[in-house]
Task: structure prediction
Amino acid sequence: MVESVLSWVEERTGMVSLVKGLLDEDVPGGTSYWYVFGSATLIVLIIQIVTGILLTFYYAPSAATAWESTRFIYDKVILGKYLIGVHYWGASVMIILVTLHLLQVLVWGAYKRPRELQWFIGVIMFICTLVLGLTGYLLPWDLNAYFASQVSINIAGSAPIAGPFVQQFLQDGPTMGTLTINRFFGLHVWLTPIVLLLLVGAHLFIFRHNGPAGPTEEEAAKRRIGKFFPTQLFMDTVISVLAFVAIVILAIVLPPELLPKAQPSLSQFQPYPAWYFMPLFGILRMTPPELDVVATIVLPTIFVLVLLFLPWIDRNPDRSWRRRPWLLTISALVVIVVIATGLYGQASVSQGQAANAQLVKQIQSGQVPGVGAPAGAAAPSGATQVAAAVGNGAAIFSQNCASCHGAQGQGTPGVFPPLAGNAVVSGGAGKVIGIVKNGLSGKIVVKSQRYNGQMPSWKATLSPAQIAAVITYIRSSWGNHASKVSEAQVKSAK
Result:
């Protein structure tokens, strides 16, 4: 019966002979557990696709529903919490496996001719995997998702030339909201996975053409030729199963936490990145504000370019690790630096995470610091008309401005300047009105500190009355003492 079915399939598709040919393939230098990372990565990618599709059945991408639908998956969907956990930890395991695969190819020298394009595509696949992790981080729309993604968008916006365009593309508006979620959802669920699958196909096609690199000639002479089936297939299966078991155990023991829903006014929340971006965060923490662009844009770009073009940079034709001491020594130092900066980054956020835990408790108990008008925001006594504008301006500020400039006007170091004690805020009304209406880009200096953030134009989003109210609010709060701004002033300002 089985033979009849196989014969029927073979006659019409040729699949049986193709599979037999693949299983009977030689493995140069013999089978080894060093060759399992590519297969295990592909299996985890399939797990990510399957769990991601299941999550889209329940997830609703908008500012009003993203957090609520995620909470629904946690609480109402059968095994929903573990489904999210498998998808969450699967991303981490996939990044680890891709990294190990690249390091294995690097050490073995398997990126050299004729496999340059195979390596080039592999590096782009690694970048796509990181992009998937970055874009998926925002989708739960909880506090850390919001503020950590905001930092990422601001970093992208600080890039020379293309930065403002990239920031506008990612944020899709003057502030983060439903359009931002939809943009990240499209990148995470459709564009990046499609690109990644196409790259996987190209990678496998080139691999089939070139064949396995295997060990170097001198090492291969000491080892016998092995077969893919059954030994190497067994090794690939063992590691893939272990990766899946690790993902499931992590999902059960350490399920991802869903923090309270994003509230832009809670600027005292201290965001932290996923562990795989912690080295970049650590470098940023070590760097003075005036060199932020170097830490966040220049160094990562150089690192990626070196990875991409390594086959053409390393002109040594020998694959033996014994004859490539300088390259492997530099590679080992880079790995050590990445680990060290990652540990430093994690240590630097530990205190902030403890403060966040206390803030979450206050939110859950009904005490929500930073929501609405901050303490001490009242206008000078006796100015009844100003007080009314301040009250309205506080709400507008909380909804539109606090996420960047802070609920207490303290700003975001290196990105958005403080409004408290800012001479520009307390100076002539015309300049402040012009900034709010028309926006501001490029480097600015406040209190001897440089800031690289981009201020969007608000004239198409807020009415003249709202702009007047919010400017009046910031000019009479946090120690600022300046005159009220009227709607007529806003209308007449260019």
The beta strands are 26-27, 226-227, 444-446, 449-451. The first helix runs from residue 2 to 13. The CA atoms of residues 429 and 485 lie 7 Å apart. The chain has two domains: 22-362, 382-492.
